[in-house]
Amino acid sequence: MVDFGSIKKKAEALKGKAEGFVDDHKDQIGKGLDKAGDFVGKKTKKEEQVDKAVGKVKGLLDRDGGSSATAESTAAEAAPAEGAAPDDTAPGGRPSGGPDTTA
User: Fold this and answer.
1) Helical packing angle, 26-44 and 4-24, nearest 10°
2) What is the pLDDT confidence band of residue 65, given thresholds at 50, 70 and 90?
3) Running DSSP on this structure, what letter comes out for residue 54?
4) What would the mean pLDDT of 30-38 be, rounded to a whole number?
5) Nearest partner of 50 among 95, 87, 97, judged by Cα
6) Long-range pairs for 52-61: beta carbons < 8 A, 24 or more residues apart
7) Against a cut of 0.70, is the pTM above it?
8) Is 50 exposed, middle or buried (0-12, 13-18, 19+ CB in 10 A)?
9) What is the rounded end-to-end Cα distance, in angstroms, of the chain?
10) Which runs of consecutive H residues, i.e. helices, occur in the chain?
């Protein structure tokens, strides 16, 4: 029979270690998020959206006692809906790569 109490204690210990690691390395993690966000933003040409997502994740780093449920909901907010068509519009609402008819 599985001892769920033992498994729970081990999971809580691992959670504590992970939180300690994050607390000790917030600056390095934040710099890595910025660097990754800059790269992804430039490659996808979605800098504003990527910056928003990075900001939300960095906000979780600053929170004491943040839960994984909060992290999952933030990731879901930042990601496009499953099955959604990619946002292929340039600023101004015109399709990217199409002629600029706003002039």
Assistant:
1) 80
2) very low
3) H
4) 95
5) 87
6) 52/78, 53/78, 57/33, 58/30, 58/33, 61/22, 61/26, 61/29, 61/30
7) no
8) buried
9) 72
10) 4-24, 26-44, 47-62, 68-78
